[in-house]
Amino acid sequence: MRARYKWPGGTGIITIGDDATLGDVVKELTAKTLLTNFGIKFGPPNAMKALDMNRTDQTARDLGLHGEMLTLVPHNERRSSSRQSISAERSLRPESERSQKMGSHDVKVPWSARDGTLLLRIMPSDNSCLFTAFGGALPQQVLPSKLRQMMADYIQEHADVYSEAILGVPPQQYCQAITDPDRWGGGIELSILSSIFDIKICTYDVEARREEVSDQLQTQNIISFGEGKRDQCILVYSGIHYDRIAFSYSEYPYTDAMLPPEMDRTTWPVEDEEVLTKAAELVGKLHGAHYFTNMDGLVLKCDVDGCGWIGSGQAEGQRHAEETGHTQLSEIVDTQTDAILRKCNMRGCEFIGQGDSAARRHSHDTGHENYSVIEDW
After folding, report:
1. So which residues are the catalytic ones?
2. Cβ neighbours, 10 Å, residue 172
3. Where is the composition biased (Basic and acidic residues) (predicted)?
4. Boundary-marking domain end, from 288, 319, 351
5. Do 251 and 114 belong together in one domain?
6. pLDDT, tens digit, for every residue of 30-72?
7. Can you spell out the DSSP letters for 193-253?
8. What is the Cα–Cα distance from 330 to 317, expressed in whole angstroms?
9. pLDDT of res. 127
10. Cα distance between residue 167 and residue 156, in whole Å
């Protein structure tokens, strides 16, 4: 029997006899991870279920564990090895963000009518990407730390507008949290920033798309904050990360931006619909390059010392944050190659795919979640 596993220190593979019991699996996992008190979850990332750890005498195959990804959930246990802690810290940085930084610089759209190039400026993956992306789009660039403090001050000055019902938490608690440099930003923050700086913020969601339009697949999900403004800027959201769209003057054939980011144009009049058309073209290329992360397919871990929580997807992560106040979540990255063949058990579906990532994409596209492993011959 073969299965992969994830835990706070990374990922791995176990290979044991076909008649191995759950107890044997637990012993093997303990030997590889040094964890002695943990639970196991398995199944599709967006529908994981907990394994009954009392069924130690039942074979792992009968429990359906062959070919599965096993997620280990430590029970109030912390490892003593500093070397393991360093390894975990490195592996828990979202793989999706690391891969996005590779190759996405090549996504540009020539704009010959304006003698330049529309391109994506990549923001650092430091939990302040939204604030860096927006602050750099302003005529007078503003640092993320200052933006956070300005937001806290603005909310306190407009307490009648930004109530607990709007913010989701008491205003005082929100103001304290938003000044934390590790606190992520989202739609509420963009709405507040739009009001502070009197600018429309257009945000493209890379993952969302629509049917063919003029023989080209284009994104459909553009969310705007701040209607009725005079100027607009354009951001790109890829599931867990924000980047900025910019225009740079360039030379024919306008495929390379030669000027530094400091010379970018990043705001346009709201009447300029052509820039949105070009931006949609650029985001369409990003979608084709799979420059997005589906949060529902991520296995997340809480980074707060002593917590040890592990869950699947954005909804579970948000619940954990609301119940505990813990907002430092990271992805447990799968660094192993999964060559296991799976077929979809939904009646009428003929999907067969290799690897967990293929099944994950199929689940996202169809909602099908029941798979069988095609055994090795």
Report:
1. 126, 129, 241, 326
2. 13
3. 90-107
4. 288
5. yes
6. 888 778 888 888 776 556 678 888 888 998 888 888 777 788 8
7. HHHHHT-EEEEEESS---SEETTEE----EEEE-TT-SEEEEEEE-SS-EEEEEEEE--TT
8. 10
9. 78
10. 12
CATH code, domain with 69: 3.10.20.90
DSSP state letter for 303: -
132 and 203 share one domain: yes
Each residue of 126-157: b (16+ CB within 10 Å) or e? ebbbbbbbbbbbbeeebebeebbeebbebbee
SS3 131: helix
* Same domain membership, residue 89 and residue 103: no
The Cα 195–Cα 293 span in angstroms is 29
Residue 296, Cβ neighbours under 10 Å: how many?
18
Query: What band does 144 get if pLDDT is binned at 50, 70 and 90?
Result: very high
Q: What is the mean pLDDT of residues 276-297?
A: 80
Interatomic CA distance for residues 307 and 297, integer angstroms? 22
The enclosing domain of 103 has a CATH number of 3.90.70.80
Strands (E), the chain: 2-7, 10-15, 38-42, 49-50, 69-74, 108-111, 116-121, 200-205, 212-213, 216-217, 222-225, 231-237, 242-249, 268-269, 299-302, 310-312, 329-331, 341-344, 352-354, 371-373
Do 40 and 101 fall within a single domain?
A: no
Q: How far is Cα 258 from Cα 273, in angstroms, rounded to an integer?
A: 25
pLDDT confidence tier of residue 205, bands split at 50, 70 and 90: confident
Q: Distances from the Cα of 85 to the Cαs of 12, 208, 315, 350, in angstroms?
A: 16, 36, 27, 43
Contact between 151 and 180 (Cβ < 8 Å): no
Q: What is the pTM of this model?
A: 0.57
d(CA 108, CA 285): 9
Q: What is the DSSP track for 158-175? A: TTTTS-HHHHSS-HHHHH
Domain that holds residue 370: 338-377
Strands laid side by side in the 329-331 sheet: 310-312, 299-302, 329-331
Number of H helices, E strands in the chain: 11, 20
- What is the C-alpha separation between 77 and 87, in angstroms, rounded? 17
* 173 or 294, which is more confident: 173
Name residue 202's beta-bridge partners: 224, 234
The residue type of 311 is: G
> Per residue in 330-369, pLDDT tens?
767 555 445 566 788 888 887 777 666 667 667 766 778 7
- Whether residue 377 is predicted with pLDDT greater than 50 in this model: the reply is no
